[in-house]
Amino acid sequence: MRFNRSELASLATNTLTRFDKEGLLILTERQESIFWRTDVKLECWCKLRGNLLFYLKDKNPRSSVAGVLVLENCRPCIHHEEPEPDGYVFDLDFKDSPSQRIVTHSAAERLDWVRCIEACSNHQIDLQIKQLEDQIAAATAVKRSNSTIMGNRIDQGLPLPATICHDSWPASAAIATVEAAFEDPELSELPICETAISCDSLPLDSFGRAPNPRVICSVLQPGEDYLWSQHARTELLERTRAPSFLCTMRFLRSAGFQASTRLRFTVHDVRERVSLTSLPLGHAEVALGVIQDTTRLRLPLCSPSGECGSITLSSWAPEAAIEMTPASGLDRAVNGLTQPTQPPRSSTQFFQQATDCNVRHKGHRRTQSLPPKLGVRLFVPQQCGVGRVCANPSQHSYRLQSSLGADISVLETLLESRLCCAVPQQLLSIWIQREKELLQEISGMGELSGEWRWRQMNLLEEHLRLLKDYSQAKQNIQQLMRDGIYYKRSSAKTDEALEFLPVNLHVQRMWAQNDALQRRGVLDIVTVGAFTRHDAKGRKCGGLIKLLQESKAWKLEQSNACKVQAANDAVQATKQLRKEIVELMSQLLQLAAQRSAQDMMPLCNEMINKTQTLLNIWEPSIVEEAVTFIERHRIIEEPDNELMEPMSPFRKITQQLSALELKSPELEDFATPVVAPPDLWPRGVQPLMRSNSWHPSNTSPSSSLDINAIDSLQNVVKCYNAHLRSLEQQQQQQQQRQRQRQQQSAAVPQPPSELSDEATYQSLPPNWDGVAATSSSSSTAPLQLIDLDELVKAVRKRPLTASFLDTKLMSSSPSANYYRPTEEPEPLDLTQLNIEASVMCLVSKLKFFCGRCDSPAIRLRHPKVPLKREGFAVAPQQAPDVIAAPMEPTQQLKLDLAPGPPAAPPPPTAPPKKGNKFTDGLDLSLTTDWVAELRPSMRKLRHAMDRLLKTARLMHSVQRLQQDVRCNRLQASIMYRRDVCFSQALTALVSALMLRLWGSELDGAYMSLLRELGPLAYFEGLLSLYGAETDMWSDMCIAIEDLSAVSFTLVPAAQDEVQPVPRITGSRQALEVLLPVPEHVLPTSGRNTVSFKITPVFFNIGINEKASLGHTHEQHRSNLDNFLRLSQYFSRYRKLGLNATCAADADASVSEWDALQSLLGYMEQQLRANASKNVKILHLAEDACRLMGGLRFTSCKSAKDRTGMAVTLEQCRVLVREFQLPAKQVPYALSTMRSEGTRMDNVFKNIGKHKYAFNLPQVIMLPAMYRPPVGAYGKAQT
């Protein structure tokens, strides 16, 4: 009773209080002082009210209160039925405190007190409520989960299910519009009405204090007389008898509301904000149709004690009273019958219908401070195509007052991105194919000898592990997509099965309208958790920045590390050029079929330039070094013994790789010839079942068979690695023993080797077959090693049915792009000579078809000194034992590919002109099929480029094999962590881009910004550089930096595509994202494709209690670097002269450019100050991003608590800056949005509680403007 003594005393002594039980009891009270301690028996009058047991000072029922016992977590127990000398005794056994002994005067009285105390606890009350709910559900024969059709937002926090209901609108059989097919009803539907609530003359409590009012709206379920469900509620106001609430209530037809729906508005007095303990003051019931017909309705509040004030309902409803006449144009003829039009589902439809009928029909809302007639479009936002890219909306509406007395309509919407699982799945597909390529490269080297075999197996084991992890992650994401889940809860952020998904990815949209200024706008913010790989055990690694620094230091020590990176870049460049050349050849074939000579020559010129670049990528000396290494260390099997001797373990392992469908991604590798993938070791075997082939248990590309096969093969390779290590140790021990014996007795002959014939490099470990057999738990047959010597030696041959240059079929044959283990590499000079000859022949024929048959042949290569690539230590050039290109002593001729006039036909008697040997014997007048003439040269060129790619991949494998094993493992771990962070970052970025392209109206200025400059992407971080969040900040810096290398291209969306999904192509180093957009967005003239890259900036300021403990030096340096990038972007943006945003005030005296310039100058001053928790930097960056039409992202650890504070603050700042919200109303509006807005819905979706995860010390350490309201925070799992 120390804190609320007066309230408890008033409750116990008030004559109007109804107690559950009263009577005389004998309590045992412990009295103690400094020198003595004793138990005193006190007989006093006791009163039981709920779970409070009051005991007075004496036996008089009117005496003062001596104390109170809180009967929670206690149980009354009767240990002895027989009476004791002082009476009938029972004990109150508390959970965490000593028991209390109580004595009554009779057994019946003791039993009565025990029953009352048992029934008064909160646990028993909850059980009684549950029983009553079950009885109600049984009486209505409807489960509670299905009975709450309308409302229930407060209980579940979920959007209402759409139901079919009949209203005053006439029934319509018209075909639904295309927009209604994909948009969510809550986004596009026009509400029946929107109601603002105020009260007056509310009663005072017994102490004369004003109440803390809150209004809850309940809905009577259809067909019921007593089953009410909560639909919406207002915010909580403190100590007022005449509250005016900011939160408004919207009633939608899709939620089951109609004119006859009964509503009950109950006013509660919230006595305690933390537990929301409240008492009802009164209620008022009304039909929805009455509210819809009136703009202001004042109702008295009813209560058992009589009238207790009034409630006022101010409603805004669109007028639907439009005359349905044939001349109005609102009827439609369907199958010869006249059918009335269905009611408009959105404000846009309603406005268009009212415009088409040539009659001035107005849909409006009325308020006290506005003119009597205003258009509906001013009050209901246009969501455009948000429903196509987002799902599961949650909305809250507010009505604020501007400084001029006008209304400010605000609508908050929280949405989930439909791309949360689609983007990571496509990225994983690209990375899976990359690991398969590397596996094929390593196995294509053949079996090596000595220590290189162990390194080769280590690389295979590492790539199999990554392949299994990527495949398992892809399968988990596919399961989520099938379940229709679009976000990852913050409580699951440490789940490794879903680590490629961003944490708590949502779109926060605020639509605002100022009626007096006739201004409306939309603010979109993508909220997402930190882009990092969360560790379930809390282990720290320093983040990607520290790991990359360690890797860089390691590369400086290892000279071969730079060679590996250079070789990888050269392979990627070769693949890209090869792809582009093949595409050019496909276009040339199409033009040749049309005999379009003028269009063929520019493409030919471009192909020559790309071929010249392709020939200059690799140097013969570097390739010769790799080939020499392979020839020195590869084990070559004799052809005579190939079918007699058993296969080695390495060859058996690599043979199993064919079951993993090692092929390159579609439209990336163009293999030749177009046949099924041959075995790595060409022997007579039956084809293994491919993982991507159809099978009853293999219905998806990432089925359990694929993952189990990878896991089985990885265990086999791991076992073989352990076997090789043990052999190395045994050899070392044997050599040491031999040295010792040689020292003891040199004349005694040495004993035979202790290693038996079974324990050699070509043998299997004893338990290998068991590991392979038990590692697979699939329902299908486990993948085991196949002894190819026991199988049939016949090879099943397949016909060549593919067409020429069919890119889809060409990508299905991987072995044409890799050397097989038994295949000898082709010399580089011979490959380059073949490429050059093919291009020379092809270009000569093209010139001949264009009427320039007298043109000489071209040359692509010039004699020059080979240039050394950076990072390579090239050995001295040796005399190559290959065919070299002939050296031309004469000067090389330049190629003139400008289209010229067609040559005049020669006279019949004159022989045709012959320009060079490639066109000898050709007659232009007799050549009718140009395609047939060009096809052989193109086929030769394609074969030569395939062989060049084989050689490039072989050299890359050699460089990786020579790299240190520890460096390979470090780079693999860094790459995996970087992929996880990048997947999360790219998913958030693509979601924001699709929201901008589909969810808002795009003008020409913004499209010019995309085409010329690219958008700005501002990532706002609230992480503290202390503890685990230091790693998160480091990961975010690298992930956001990697986004700048991604290319984006706008492509037209398919007309029948309901949900547009971007398509990701390319490789890890060069990704391209194809964004589908509506056709009207793309330019109709000029360049049809719009490609761009983003400019990401990342500013981080820690705001919680740990921000004062961490070191902010790295954060300060990073913020300065990002400010420099932001200033450079502003300079380029200013040169364009575009106004890509509508947020700037057109009537302001200062231009937008000057405002941005001064804003950046002030931001630089704040950065130079380097103050702790300087959130002004974040606010200035927000304003700059909004003025330049950029994309906004806000992140903290889980995008739930600190992010909610930051987003609501930015919304209020926008309302003050753009819509004239008075500054004195900002704390009230901020508190309302945080306690009753969509950010609280986000908290409930993640942890199941309406509490931000802050405690009181943490709230005190937050900046004042980032503190949540009282009662909105507490103990919650973050």
Task: Please provide a written account of the structure.
The protein contains 32 helices and 30 strands. With 1278 residues, the chain is α+β, with helices and mostly antiparallel strands. Among the domains are: 125 residues, PH-domain like; 124 residues, Immunoglobulin-like, CATH 2.60.40. The strands form six sheets. It has an eleven-stranded mixed β-sheet, with helices on both faces. Strand 12 and strand 13 form a beta hairpin. 38% of the residues are buried.
Distance between the termini: 34 Å
What is the overall shape?
Answer: globular
Strand content is 15-25%
Say what the CATH topology of the domain at 5-129 is: PH-domain like
| CATH top level assignment of the domain at 5-129 | Mainly Beta
How confident is the prediction overall: mean pLDDT?
Answer: 75
From the coordinates shown, what is the CATH architecture of the domain at 5-129?
A: Roll
Can you say what the CATH homologous superfamily of the domain at 5-129 is? Pleckstrin-homology domain (PH domain)/Phosphotyrosine-binding domain (PTB)
Portion of residues in helices? Answer: 25-40%
| Count of DSSP-assigned helices | 32
Number of strands: 30
> Which spans of ≥5 residues are poorly predicted at pLDDT below 50?
142-183, 319-378, 639-644, 663-705, 747-815, 853-857, 863-904, 907-915, 1140-1149
How is this fold's topology laid out?
Blueprint: H1 5-13, E1 21-32, E2 37-49, E3 52-56, E4 65-70, E5 74-77, E6 88-94, E7 100-104, H2 107-119, H3 122-140, H4 144-147, H5 153-156, H6 178-182, H7 185-188, E8 193-200, E9 213-220, E10 228-233, E11 244-251, E12 262-272, E13 277-287, H8 288-293, E14 296-300, E15 310-316, E16 331-334, E17 337-340, H9 347-356, H10 386-389, E18 390-401, E19 407-417, H11 422-444, H12 451-483, E20 506-514, E21 519-527, H13 543-557, H14 560-594, H15 597-615, H16 620-633, H17 649-656, H18 704-744, H19 768-774, H20 807-810, H21 828-849, H22 930-962, H23 965-998, H24 1004-1012, E22 1016-1021, H25 1028-1042, E23 1047-1052, E24 1063-1066, E25 1071-1077, E26 1090-1092, E27 1095-1100, H26 1113-1136, H27 1152-1169, H28 1176-1187, E28 1191-1195, H29 1202-1219, H30 1226-1236, H31 1238-1247, E29 1252-1253, H32 1256-1261, E30 1273-1274
Parallel strand pairs: 21-28, 22-27, 22-28, 23-25, 29-30
Antiparallel strand pairs: 1-2, 1-7, 2-3, 3-4, 5-6, 6-7, 8-11, 8-15, 9-10, 9-12, 11-18, 12-13, 14-15, 16-17, 18-19, 19-20, 20-21, 23-26, 24-25
Helix pairs in contact: 11-12, 11-22, 11-23, 12-18, 12-23, 13-23, 13-25, 14-15, 14-22, 15-21, 16-22, 18-19, 21-22, 23-25, 26-27, 27-28, 29-30, 30-31
